[in-house]
TrEMBL record:
Pfam families: DUF2442. InterPro entries: DUF2442 (IPR018841), NE0471-like_N (IPR036782). It comes from the Bacteria. It comes from Selenomonas ruminantium. This is DUF2442 domain-containing protein.
Length: 82
């Protein structure tokens, strides 16, 4: 089953606090993606972009643009438990 996001909050240090429907709470560090994926660099260089994410209707994908998205299963698996 694909984990669904219940709540998500961006933090000032390029991390996301994410609460899933099953109660799991994680912090996902987007800085690693910014360093390794060229399309993610604009999250750091474009003022305010990181805070302006959207969640798709299925609540299984966070996205900032057509080129920058993050699947909920990646956040679920690689996020640090709170």
């Amino acid at each position: 089953m694909i984990p669904r996001i219940k709540k998500i909050e961006p933090r000032s240090d390029y991390t996301l606090y994410v609460l899933f429907d099953d109660g799991r709470q994680v912090l996902y560090d987007v800085k690693d993606d910014i360093r390794t994926l060229p399309t993610y660099r604009s999250l750091q260089t474009e003022h305010g972009l990181f805070q302006n994410f959207q969640l798709d209707e299925s609540r299984t994908c966070v996205f900032w643009s057509d080129e920058i998205d993050l699947a909920s299963d990646i956040i679920y698996e690689y996020g640090t438990l709170c």
